[in-house]
Design a protein that fits this description.
Elements: H1 4-19, H2 36-54, E1 58-64, H3 68-74, E2 80-85, E3 105-114, H4 125-131, E4 132-142, H5 153-158, E5 163-168, E6 184-189, E7 192-198, H6 206-219, E8 229-231, E9 239-240, E10 246-251, E11 257-260
Parallel strand pairs: 1-8
Antiparallel strand pairs: 1-2, 3-4, 3-8, 3-9, 4-5, 6-7, 6-10, 10-11
The structure holds 2-oxoadipic acid and magnesium ion.
């Protein structure tokens, strides 16, 4: 077992790396005791620090590494999750500044917004769908605090699953009006297709990924709550962001979502 001191120290190291915009070495080499469970303890501590120091609050959750495309790209073959904070949300039409970021990438996701808590005792796909208020297109800007974006599963969990910023459309779509298995996704960088996918690339159905996370959270005494935003995890690989870039995501049956990077 890693001592509480070490958990707090790893959390603080990651907090500083993000705040002061530098990379750190991954932790598993130095601390082989950093298991997935302990890594979620580090993440909890990191979130406490960020809420306190950045005067922000939790507004939802994000999934990571839920598609084969992302698992293969990162060489990590199991999903993870992290916490979304209010200060991570970008407003529509706000160009993204790369200055406060280390080596950001962007990826297309589906955002779920919940009308009810996910209570369990075992959260099912049916419960996720019943509790969903609406879904909408989103993009996540991820920014690992690790050297060369290189990590193992416990490392990335400790680092709040590389979360940095996200943007979601202000349109609301009922899950009755979209097909969350077959819905196509086109992700473009500067009008060229970067990747294509379908909603079902997220563990067969994005609600399955959310049920997986909700059950892990219940085991840790936490839950997805009414009002929460939950990001599905990326449907395609992620794109490196450069000054002046424009990215769009379009899903079948939904309006396109667009962001630009400050030039
Ligand atoms: C880990 C976070 C993955 C996603 O959508 O798959 C993630 C990473 O790739 O750095 O956010
Ligand atoms: Mg993501």
């Amino acid at each position: 077992m890693l001592k509480t001191d070490t958990v707090n120290q790893i959390a603080y190291t990651l907090f500083q790396a993000e705040r002061d915009v530098y990379e750190v070495k991954k932790f598993v080499d130095e601390y082989p005791e950093l298991t997935v469970e302990v890594a979620y303890d580090v993440q909890d501590q990191l979130i406490k620090l960020k809420c306190d120091q950045e005067k922000t609050v939790r507004i939802g959750m994000k999934l990571g590494l839920t598609s084969k495309a992302k698992q293969q790209m990162m060489g990590v073959h199991e999903p993870s999750y992290g916490v979304l904070l209010q200060n991570m949300e970008l407003l529509a039409a706000e160009p993204i500044s790369l200055k406060p970021l280390i080596h950001p990438k962007i990826e297309p996701e589906i955002a779920f917004v919940f009308a009810k808590d996910l209570e369990g005792p075992v959260v099912t796909v049916a419960e996720v769908l019943q509790a969903t208020d609406y879904v909408t297109p989103a993009m996540e800007i991820i920014d690992s605090r690790y050297l060369n974006f290189n990590f193992t599963l416990p490392d990335v969990i400790a680092d709040n699953s590389s979360s940095s910023k996200y943007i979601m459309s202000d349109k609301k779509y009922s899950i009755r009006d979209v097909d969350l298995v077959k819905m196509g996704c086109i992700f473009k960088q500067n009008d060229e297709i970067f990747g294509t996918s379908t909603a079902g690339s997220i563990m067969g159905h994005p609600a399955r990924a959310i049920a997986w996370m909700a059950n892990k959270m219940l085991a840790r005494g936490q839950k997805v709550r009414a009002g929460d935003v939950v990001l599905s995890g990326a449907l395609t690989g992620s794109a490196v962001m450069q000054a002046g870039d424009e990215f769009t995501v379009s899903f079948d049956g939904m309006d396109e979502l667009r962001v630009t990077v400050e030039g």
